Amino acid sequence: MPNRKAPSSLLLLAGILVTGCSGVQSTLAPSGQDADRIASLFWWMTGGAAVVWVFVIALAVYYARHSSGTRNQRRDRWLILGGGVAFPTVTLTILLIYGLAMIPETVARAPEGSLQIAVSGEQWWWRVRYFRPGGQEVVLANEVRLPVGEPVQFRLDSDNVIHSFWIPSLAGKMDMIPGRVTYLTVRPTATGIFRGACAEYCGTSHALMAFYVEVMEKAAFDAWLDHQARPAVVQAQDAAPDAARGGELFASNGCGACHTVRGTAARGEIGPDLTHVGGRLSLGAGILEMRPDKLRDWLARTAHIKPGVHMPEFNMLPDADLQALAAYLHGLK
Ligand SMILES: [Cu+2]
Questions:
Q1: Hey, which of 12, 76, 158, 260 would disulfide with 121, CB 3.0 to 4.6 Å?
Q2: Does 212 lie in the same domain as 251?
């Protein structure tokens, strides 16, 4: 009696495998030059492995069905030498050369004058600095935007533990190693929103250390960076009373000891820069949607949302204060 469940469980498995291959965080849906190369390497390797597998299984089946008495010894020897030595040597050599030939281009630095972005791995978020042509440095956090079609030079480091910077749809991964600077060149080939993640276990909330990357047309990117370079747009008392009160609470609760909001007295550097936090695509390093209710949750249940987080929970504040703080932060676009 055949197992009737087999087809449906196979379908389920195929479904899981296929959903893993699309979307904003997939190596197999490349939108960057290196990711393209990595995807073709993957397909050629998979193809090569499939050919070898089919060949070996066919031989095994053939010999399982033909008893040794009827076999031709000479042909057997040829099959062992040809199929067991020559064929794997040739196939693996071709695949090896194909793979090695990709390395020089993949590790090459972006040409002089390319956009420079420094990203530091923190526990468990990303400190991002853009270097503008005039030498001005713009400090951001937990989000990266890139102009389409241009090489970008990432300069990666960490002052705590090893992290790994990975945007699967755009490029390969690169470790962020304390005491060292590593480089990654990214050349996005299509606009869109992609997701990056830390790819090296870095402590309790390693799995909650992600970020979004938006690849934009050059003009939109320039406008975005211009805006990010400006100080915070602090809302007026009469236009947004809640947000204005949130600004006062931000100062009186000591948030500025760890956070910077450019244009205000808040100049802390322990946590992410919050100057334009409300304009980010996500909250808490890629883990929550950027919405006032999520901001409120973040402040009240920080360590529940992100275990081990280096920010105190502010659950002692009355709900009205948390909402005012959330309104202030959400208004920092
Ligand atoms: Cu990490």
A1: 158
A2: no
Q: What would the pLDDT profile of 209-255 be if each residue is shown by its tens digit?
A: 999 999 999 999 999 999 999 999 877 777 888 999 999 999 999 99
CA 78 to ligand 1 center in whole angstroms: 52
* Side-by-side strand order, sheet with 152-158: 137-141, 126-131, 115-121, 152-158, 182-186
Q: d(Cα 203, Cα 127) in Å, to the nearest integer? A: 17
Looking at every residue in the chain, the average pLDDT score rounds to 91
Give the total number of structural domains in the chain. Answer: 3
Q: Which of 193, 198, 169, 165 is nearest to 25 (CA)?
A: 169
Residues 152 and 90 in one domain: no
Distance 125 CA to ligand 1 centre (A): 7
265: left (phi over 0), alpha (psi -120 to 50) or beta: alpha
Please give the angle made by the CA atoms of 214, 290 and 173, to the nearest 5 degrees.
40
Q: Give the residue from 65, 90, 107 where a domain finishes.
A: 107
Residue 201 Cα to ligand 1 midpoint, Å, equals 6
pTM: 0.89
pLDDT in tens, 180-211: 999 999 999 999 999 999 999 999 999 999 99
Measured CA to CA, the distance from residue 186 to residue 182 in angstroms comes to 13
pLDDT band at 2 (very low <50, low <70, confident <90, very high): very low
How close is the Cα of 198 to the center of ligand 1, in Å? 5
**What separation in Å is there between the alpha carbon of 190 and the centre of ligand 1?**
27
One domain for residues 218 and 129:
yes
Could you tell me the distance, in angstroms and rounded to a whole number, from the CA of residue 289 to the centre of ligand 1? Answer: 20
Residue with tokens 């962020």: 176
Whole-angstrom distance between the N-terminal and C-terminal Cα of the chain?
Answer: 64
**Model confidence at 1, in pLDDT bands (50, 70, 90)?**
very low
Q: What span, in angstroms and rounded, lies between the C-alpha atoms of 125 and 148?
A: 25
pLDDT at 48 (0 to 100):
86
